Prior knowledge:
Chain A is of the alpha+beta class. Chain A has one domain (4-223): Alpha-Beta Plaits (2-Layer Sandwich).
Amino acid sequence: MTRWGMVIDTDRCTGCGACVVACHAENNIQTVGEEEARNGRAMHWLRIERHYEGEFPDIQVRFLPVLCQQCGSAPCEPVCPVYATYRTPEGLNAMVYSRCIGTRYCANNCPYTVRFFNWHAGEWPKPLDRQLNPDVSVRPAGVMEKCTFCVQRIQEGQDRAKDESRQVTDGDIKTACSQSCPARAITFGDLENSESRVAQMAKSARASHLLEDLGTDPSVIYLQGGEEH
Amino acid sequence: MTPGRMSREVPLFRPLTSWRPKLILGSLLAGAVAALLFYSWGYQVRNDIGVTGLNRPVFWGFYITNFVFWIGISHAGTLISAILRVTSAEWRRPVTRCAEAITVFALSIGGLFPLIHLGRPWLFWFMIPLPNYRGLWPNFRSPLVWDMMAIGTYLTGSILYLLLPMLPDLAILRDRHIADNPNSARARIYRFLALGWRGTAQQWHSLESGIRALAVIIIPVAVSVHTIVSWDFSMTRQPMWHSTIFGPYFVVGAIYSGIAVLMVAMYLLRRGMGLESYLNDKIFNNLGLLFLTFTLIWSYFTFAEHLTVWYGNEPSEMAVFTERISGQYAWVFWAMILLNVALPMLVLSFPLGRKPFFTAIVGVGVLIGMWIERFLIVVGTLSLPRLDFTVGTYQPSWTELGILVGSFGLFVLLYLIFVQIAPIVSIWEVREGEHHLGQVRPASEHLTVETT
């Protein structure tokens, strides 16, 4: 079996935001504009949170890339009245846009606040519409969306491996964020495959989950507590 | 028939037999306010749910607050009237009808809000378990699906519970109108509505056992409805939502706000229609005592809920708690305590405070207080998510305010229309009560004019 997972080394993260931009470009995420962003409606499937360690002058800024944790026991799933969000056999927490009626209950029960609602439909004035990714649906107003672990890339990688009559190997599939991270802080792969890099890194003593005590069984693993920067 | 009762029943029949200018004017005014709801909703459907002030993390706001508020109010009638019927409280007789009508209308309006709040309301039927070729079903694990079923059951039950005891009264109206002019529109309408009620012994027997059975069945249904509404919150894991006492707490709060609206409605009916002889001071006193009882129970629950959170001192819960007690929501919270705890206790504890005018004033206060309670629960928790990077605020938009105001207009409109369709005090039940007291002949003897 496969369980897609991600390891983020926060000691490597410089907070540059390349992953955020790559995610927007890859997944046709709308930019809502200044005013809507001020109203708390900015959409970033992947966002970089910032926190401080220590007291001035011995202070250090830490960055925490937060995205859908693709929980094994996801609080968002059981509350959806119409199965618009569900768990795939490959361990993804999937969104079915066409099924979503917009109760926003899933977002309320997400402890990571990583779900984003299309208060209005996105707009891509010409010629920006030409940059839309044809592999990803553009969401209408009134539906929920969130990080998919670039499911279109997973699909493409699996198709390619199948065409070449082989198994998907580690490194075949890269999410947009992991591909674009200059510090190589983000690694993507199959957690069930003990040979994969993510499975190896997940065993690290530096590994932890976000809000681990909630028992949501996330597929995103954070590494921290290594060398000082 | 004694002249005394004749004159007593006159104000009940007045709006049913002729057009009353004040009632018409009132209905038009209420209709204009109600139009605000539909205009705002239409505007929202055209321009997306984004016209609200909702955001991330405050995904629910006024609409869900109003939903819980109106569903809460719907516990006025059915529950109160059913409990009083089951316990054979004689003084209930003039109260039941006007309370049951509140239930049906408040529930209908409450049931609108989940639709209004949807991102894509035209797809609400995805929640209904309709057989389809793709085998797609709603998610029966979701409290929202439980909600829809509970409210559907309750609405059906309370409509039956309103209509069934109305049959003999509708027959009285039918007979009156037929005596006046058998071909008038009113005569025809009531002939249909009375469903052939003739007042035979068999019919009376069926009616009474039907009412008895419905009264018993509707109590657990009503309790389940607000329990399930509370589970929308407590089934989640959000701080100060995930509470085991939310079920009973919400039920108590619902009955509390239900009595409040009943107090206000009874006062207005008494003043507006001259029903002093039915809705007398004794009834206000008795309901005032029930009102006070629920003040105490609700205060106890509120205290227990907040004390355990504070004592537990869990960080994510304390964030919500602190914001509520001494932060940005503090003034709303303490206003709620003033309106729901201090004011009712101060006023209703004294016999003078249980006079109609004062109970109505307290009723208005408690309605505001209970609305605030739901607002604090919905927005208070959502604005402070566990990962405190995403703390948010919420400011309702004009659309949301318009829909809130419009919902009150719609309620008043429906109620005023009802007053012009059916006697707001159950005539036969009051007569039956007089019979029990040995004052007059059995009610069934003079309920029908046509005996052929």
